[in-house]
Amino acid sequence: MRLRLAGASAAGLLALAPALPAAADPVESGPWTSYSPTFNVQERGCGDVNDLTFTLTCSTDSGDQRAERRYATYSSGTRQFEGSFRITSLEGSRISLKQTFKTTGPFFMLAVERGGRLYAVHGGTTIATGATVGTTVRVNTVHVVGSSHRTYINGSLKHTVSSESGDFYDKFGAYRTSSGQGPATVQWSGVQFWRK
Question: What's the confidence (pLDDT) of residue 15?
Fold first, then answer.
């Protein structure tokens, strides 16, 4: 009887715990090969990086305010990024969270507004809602160089754009867009990369 009650109690506690987005396999069929690209930490302006916590400490609405990881450049094949972010504070708005960047300039930028709307910076298309403070959101981007770039939120395809050829790289963290400002703190986890 005690075991049954203990089990029921534990199950009740698990039910109350916030569900985290699953992060085990690529969102598209493979075969995929897992890999670990090198990265550089970028801190500019009031940006601060502490492992996988990225903070903009100021409310400055001009200049280069960034706290990011910039990963190695790639120029061919299909690449998949996965990571989960949780915004722990957002007094500002319009903060870029994840970028697929072309070495000649911005290509795809996923940003958040203070209310939880996720959007594509170029074009302003709403990608998802609900990215509010304290909520964990899983992001996957699948980039077929020279063909397409797809963005998944919590495992669901939300945005597709065509891609030209060239040299690209992944970035994530917290970065003030041209129309945004901090302060903001974002924690990332479960970062993985695959290629095929």
Answer: 41
Expressed in angstroms, the distance from the first to the final Cα of the chain is 52
Average pLDDT for the chain: 90
Count the neighbouring beta carbons within 10 Å of the beta carbon of residue 5.
9
Inter-CA distances, 69 with 27, 72, 101, 117, 161, Å: 22, 10, 12, 23, 23
Give the model's confidence band at 24: pLDDT under 50 very low, under 70 low, under 90 confident, else very high.
low
**pTM of this prediction?**
0.86
Distances (CA, A) of 173 to 35, 86, 100, 110: 20, 11, 12, 11
The predicted structure's pLDDT at residue 9: 40
pLDDT of residue 137: 98
- Alpha-carbon distance of 56 to 67, in angstroms, equals 7
68 alpha-carbon distance from chain centroid:
11
Q: How far apart are CA 135 and CA 59, in angstroms?
A: 22
Cα–Cα–Cα angle for 46, 102, 93, rounded to 5 degrees: 35
Tokens of 75: 């120029």
